[in-house]
Amino acid sequence: MVLIVTPLSRIHDVIAERAPSHLITLLSPSEMIETPEGFPPTRHLRIETHDIAAAQEGLVLPTAEMMERVLEFAQGWDARAPMLVHCWAGISRSTASAFAIACERNPQADEHVIAQALRRSAPHAYPNRRLVALADDILGRRGRMVEAVEAMGDNNFAMEGVPFDLPARY
Q1: CA dist., res. 148 & res. 141, Å (int)
Q2: CA separation (Å) from 161 to 76, 91, 101?
Q3: What per-residue confidence (pLDDT) applies to 121?
């Protein structure tokens, strides 16, 4: 049971190499992609949001409804094949969503354990703080997800991530 996180530039390669059963795309409205050819549209969730943590005029702020859609979509994943989660750079929106899915699948797990697994797998990760806070609230984690992500530290300002795996079970 694995989540694959990647930047947009690598999704076609990852789909060809890893054959994920589900795909989550988190991109701004102007960057949103169509479902890749040959991939079932019913297994592709497209979330239109900018990579921001606070409201900015003209930009789409992540909402609780968006995170609820991510978590609900992930509940339909049977984990027999990987789930692919991507955003523009594979650093912020996608890592926050993968972290949230891993936390949802492991309600008794220590959030710091999951966050540190994320950091080990992806030194470039810098999960979007708003998405994490929304998931924390939805999952009733009482701020522990936010604290765990903050404890990860920064990512040395990477411009683009590389594909990596994050276990979905702990």
Answers
A1: 11
A2: 27, 6, 19
A3: 96
| Structural domain that includes position 43 | 2-167
Count of domains for the chain: 1
30-57 per-position pLDDT tens digit = 999 999 999 999 999 999 999 999 999 9
CATH number of the domain bearing residue 116: 3.90.190.10
Tens-digit pLDDT profile for residues 94-134: 999 999 999 999 999 999 999 999 999 999 999 999 999 99
* CB contact set of 10 (below 8 Å; sequence gap of 6+): 86, 90, 162, 163
DSSP string covering the chain, please? -EEEEEEGGGHHHHHHHH--SEEEEEE-GGGPPPPPTTS-GGGEEEEE--S-SS--TTS----HHHHHHHHHHHHT--SSS-EEEEESSSSSHHHHHHHHHHHHH-TTS-HHHHHHHHHHH-TT----HHHHHHHHHHTT-TTHHHHHHHHT---TT-SS---EEEES--
Distance CA 168, CA 170 (A): 7
Q: What is the pTM of this model?
A: 0.97
